[in-house]
Automatic annotation (TrEMBL):
Key word Plastid present: no
GO MF annotations in UniProt: ATP-dependent peptidase activity; serine-type endopeptidase activity
Active site residues according to the UniProt entry: S158, K203
Family to which the UniProt record says this protein belongs: Belongs to the peptidase S16 family.
Lineage: Bacteria, Bacillati, Actinomycetota, Actinomycetes, Kitasatosporales
GO biological process: proteolysis
One protein family per Pfam: Lon_C
Enzymatic class: hydrolase
Protein name: endopeptidase La
Domain annotation Lon proteolytic: ranges: 153-251
Catalytic activity from the UniProt record: Hydrolysis of proteins in presence of ATP
Keywords: Hydrolase, Protease, Serine protease
Amino acid sequence: MRTPRLSRPLYLSLCALPLLGLLAAAVFAPLPFSIAFPGSTTDVLGKDKGGEPVITVTGAKTYPTRGQLRMTTITATSPDTTVRLPDVVGSWFDKGEAVMPRDSVYPVGDSVKEIREYNDEAMRDSQSAATAAALNHLKLDPEKVKVDLRLADVGGPSAGLLFSLGIIDKLGADDLAGGRVIAGTGTIDAAGKVGAVGGVPLKTQAAKRDKATVFLVPKAECSEAEAELPSGLRLVPVTTLSGAIDALGALRSGGKVPSC
């Protein structure tokens, strides 16, 4: 008895069914990514959303400042948002978005509460290190000079460099911003060493949107920042707090400014 032969089109269709099933599963399967966007920026020399000064200093003379020192952020899909292949593909072709490994955006915890607590602790540690670095640079006694940093709804350590610069600008006679809108990002430790952060291309977009003309970037992230640098925004690479201060001084005086 002969086995009936399937026609070629029918045979190919039957063979394609498992492949189509796999493709459908891949399209709708959740992926370990977050979609990130340019976030808000805040002038650390100014006030927060509640109208309170971001930096308050007691126990030492302060000086008037000109210009702005804007810390930058990114905004990402929440940790409980499901990201699928179409979302990833769409973001690859949108310069206003970036696909980032979820663990790089939310490095600890599975719940929104755990992540918020981690980010709040990282911000507090960053503020303490920024204050210590600034007072060390100015050779001021932390037992006598008190610095209060207030910035609601922002977590993580990446504002450290800008906090230190803001404290120094208020406590020093030199006008760091020099009337410019300076933006930037970077962690900092108590010794004044600047560390790398994530999402730099998105942060440069946020800086340009909010009228910055200069962006202080950790030197290790120059290439990443240059790849999608908005027109009219000047990158200034930094590795230390003192180097950032020297670069801003060179900007004011027309001297040689480091470049990527």
